[in-house]
Amino acid sequence: MRVGSSLWVVFTCLVSMGCQEENASVEFRFTEPKSGQDVWNTTPVTVAMPSDFSGTLEITVDGVQVGQANATPFRVDWNTRTLPDGDYTLVARATSVSGEQTETRIPVHIKNTLLTLQVPVQHVPSGTQAFIYLSDATGKTIAVQELINGAPVRIEGLEDFNLPTFTVNEVYIRYPGLLQAFSITEVGRGPWTLNQTRSPEFVGSIQIKSETIPEGVYFVSASGDYDFIDPVNQSIQLATTESSGKLFVRDVGTEDNRYALINDVNVGSLWNLPVNAVNTPLKKISIPLSDPDLISARVSLFGFSQPDKYEEHYPLGVFFRAGPQLKIDYPEEFLYMGSESYYRNKQVRMYSFAPKKLYDFKLLNAQIYVSTKDRRIVDIATFGDFDIYMLSWKYYNEPTNSSALWVLIGPSGRSQKITLPQVPVEISQRVPNIRTNELEFTGVTQVSDYGVTKGYANYLNYISIHGIAGPYQFGLPWKEQLFTESGITSGRDSRKEHRMLSELLNRVP
Questions:
Q1: What is the largest CA-CA distance in the chain?
Q2: Strand runs (DSSP E) across 241-387, as ranges?
Q3: Among residues 134, 245, 288, 376, which one has the fewest Cβ atoms lying within 10 Å of its Cβ?
Q4: Residue 41 is assigned to a structural domain of this protein
Q5: Which backbone phi and psi does 192 adopt, to 5 degrees?
Q6: What is the CATH number of the domain that holds 75?
C-alpha cells in the first residue's frame, strides 16, 4: 500500500503450488531486496525458486508489471524512479509451464529523494546567504541548493548516486569575508531539520534597576538572557522568551553566595531589584575529579521551570575546577542541565549534555587518535562512552579581515578516514575573500555524549527532527558555543560572557 493512499495489491492464488506470503517458503522467496528495505534508482529484484521449477516469474508493484524472467537467475531490474516515493508492496508471481501459479510479497520503501526540509521563516538573518549541499565520502558534491526563508527544499537523488548515506553540509555566509559551515556525516535519505543557528525568540524585555547596592555584584537572569548589576551599573535590560516568567538573582564573588527567585515578572515591566531579598542559601555540591590527565573542568547550569519546556531556560552560573574538586552551588527550584569540559591535551574539549538532576554529572571516558595526510584528509580513531566527535578547520586572512570556520560531526567508536567536503562553485564564488582550499585542520574541537540518544544512528535521527542544537541545548545556538571560544563571536555579547566568567567565578579559564 502506498503511503497516504488506499491502493492495495490484490492477488489471486491459483492451485497446486499454493500461496506464499512474507517469505513463508525458503524455496520461493525474495532474496533482493529484503522485506521493508529502502530502494531507489534501478534496483535488482531477485527471487529464489525451487530447483526443479520451470516457467515464468512476473514482478508487479501495485498490480503493474515491472518485469519478468524465465530462467535462472530469476532477476528483474526495477526502475523505481517511475513511481513517487512511498511504501509499496512488491509481488512475485511464478507461473509453471503447466499453468500453476503461486505468489510471494514483501513491503518496500521507495526513497529516490535524498533530503527534504522546510526553511523556517526567520532562519537566514538579513545580510546572510545560506546553502545546503550534499557530498559523498570523498568530498565530491552531489547536489547544492540555496536556503530561502520560508521555502521548502527537496533534493532529488541522481541516477548515478546509489549510496544509502551522504554528508549534509550547511553553509552560512555572514558577509563576503565570513563563512561558517557544519558538516554531518553518514546521514540517510529522508527529512531533515536545519541547524538551530538563530537566537531564542524573545517576546520582549524587562527593565531592572537598583539604587540601593552599596557594594558587590549581582548576577541577574531572565528566560534566555542575563547580565550583571552593581553600584556602577545599576540599570540593565534583559530580553526574555516568556511573556510572564521569573527573575533569578544571585550575589557573586562572596564565600557564601545567596539567591532570590522572583515569580510573575511580566514583559515590559520595570523592576526595582530588592537586594535585601537575595538571602536564600544555595544548595552546594562537590564533585571529586580524580582523572590524572584532567587539566580543567567546567559545568554550565541552566534552570527549567517545567520538564521538557526547554525554550524557557534560566542561566544560573558557570563553575570551574578548584583543586581536586568541582564545587557547584544552585537553587533547588529548577531541573538542571549541566555541561562539562575537560582537556587531555590542547586539542580535545569534552562536553556532556543531559536534562537530568545534577548528581548525574560525570566525566566522559574518551580516547582520540588523529593523524593528517593533508589539509583535507584526517585519519581518526575514537574510543569511549560518547556519541559524536567534532573536527574543525579554520581560515583567517588578516589583510582582508576574512575568516572561515568549518565543523564536521562524525560517529564515535570507529577508525576511519574523513575528507573535508569540497566547496561547490555556487558557494566559493560568493566568498571571494576566503580561499576555501586553504582551510587548515585545527584538531578535535569537541566530543559529546547526549542523554537523549544512544549511539550515532539515534543521534542522527534526533537532529533530523530537532536540528543540531535542538531543545536539549536550552535554546542557545550550538554554533555560538564553538565560535565564541574560537574567537568568532555570534549571537551573545562576548564581553558579557567574559564578565560572567571573571566576576562570577573570580577567575578566567
A1: 103
A2: 244-252, 258-266, 270-272, 280-281, 283-288, 298-304, 313-322, 325-330, 335-340, 350-353, 366-372, 377-384
A3: 288
A4: yes
A5: -145, 155
A6: 2.60.40.10
The three cell numbers locating residue 24 = 513463508
**Domain check: are 453 and 383 in the same one?**
yes
Query: Residue with C-alpha cell 516568556?
Result: 242
Burial class (CB in 10 A: 0-12, 13-18, 19+), 463: buried
Predicted TM-score (pTM) of this structure:
0.68
Q: State whether residue 190 is helix, strand or coil.
A: strand
Per-residue pLDDT tens over the stretch 279-307:
899 888 777 766 666 666 667 777 777 65
Q: 23: closest CA among 111, 102, 109, 110?
A: 102
Classify strands 377-384 and 415-419 as parallel, antiparallel or unpaired.
Answer: antiparallel
Burial-class residue 408 by CB neighbours within 10 Å (0-12, 13-18, 19+).
Answer: buried
Which pLDDT tens digit goes with each residue over 76-92? 899 999 999 999 999 99
pLDDT for 230 equals 83
Residue that has been written with the C-alpha cell 515578572 in this structure:
265
C-alpha cell at 249: 538573582
Amino acid at 118: Q
